[in-house]
Amino acid sequence: MITRLDTGLARTLIRGAAVAASNVAVSTNSFATIGILLSLSTLASMGGQGGGGILVPTFMMFDQLDPHAAVPLSKVVVFIGTLSSVIVNANADKDTVDAEVVLALVPTALAGTLIGVALNRITPSIWIISLLSCTILVTLGLISTRLRAQWKEEAAAAVEGEHRASSGEADAAAGIVNRSVFGEPKQEQLALKDVKRSLVAVVGLLICVVLAGTFMRIMTRCEDSLIAAPSSTVHAACESGALRMIFGNSHYSMEGGFLRSTYSSVIAVSPMTVTLALSAYTTSSMYSRDVIGTHHKWTKEQLYQFSALGLLVGILAALVGVGGGMLFAPFMLFMGMDSVSTVMTSTFCVLFTSCSTSMQFLLLGRVLLNLVPVYALVNIFASVAGSYMVILLDRSNKPKSTITCLVLAAQLASAGFCIWKLQMIFSTDDTKLRTDPMLSGDVS
Q: In the chain, how many domains are there?
């Protein structure tokens, strides 16, 4: 059975990549793309961002990809780069990932990716670009606000340090820089090693989300084919190896096929419905079992805000291609988390969202696999370089605002690419980009 399923998914990947490649024009100006990605992705990695908000505009501008091709490609590249970053971060000297934030944020973010992948397929390109531009602009505002606050805190710490240096209290003054805007933390942050069982539950939810997103699209595609030709007994869209392994041909047979029934639409989206309920249960259990929000750094009210953010960012991550860190990191800084913990925690969260979206897009055959190796290697190098630079800056006691400034520069460049792309669309007669919801169909 497993062999049959694997063979079916492999065929899906190969056919999907061929269809996507045949429908999207790819530029030969690869060296420009590589240079831009290398520099900007390194800066993004320093801010705990996977780089999706940079990759998508770059792919659109320099490789001339449609957003429906650029977003899936960016998710796979981000996942590979983020995985390398997490490995580097794991070798740091101390526990810098805030497990409470991870457990509050990731389950809802995974639910958001399930919704976002479904929306990405039917959303017109111009809407995706516009939404991405708005997301980047909001992020710029958050980063700028935090940067101004950091400058003020560092200036205050420096002045306070000079006054207290003679009495040996300089270290206490330096602590102003890392103080939460909501006051002093109740205790040290919760470490990942203390919540291993909860992390296993989150990984299980990730697997459920990937499978649910894939099966839902396979069933809805079969349903669409049956609606278009109800009297036909041959439907290529219903010949999925995965569906046949589970249902045989009972899902579309002329005698009682459940995707031919009155309730076919409800059945087709049932994988999403069940998985969203599972995500809600997982999130609520984290709070009800006092895993988070009780004896550590954050109150439950603060963690509720992280959970709400996770759902929103999960949707945007899959819909417009932002890596998640583009919004995770600025919000964590705004909530008072110090820069190093922000980078490490955001990167760890992005690992889950990028894995969920990239696996769904891969299984649905929507990734340009021929472009993945080169860009993945570039992003791996950038991610590792960015992580090491953060560790070095932390050990050399550089101001926290240094990292924030570099991240702001990368986001400014990304915003420029998006605005430039929008201007190009509106200055031409390319109405297809404005209205066509899907230039390259998926193959399930």
A: 1
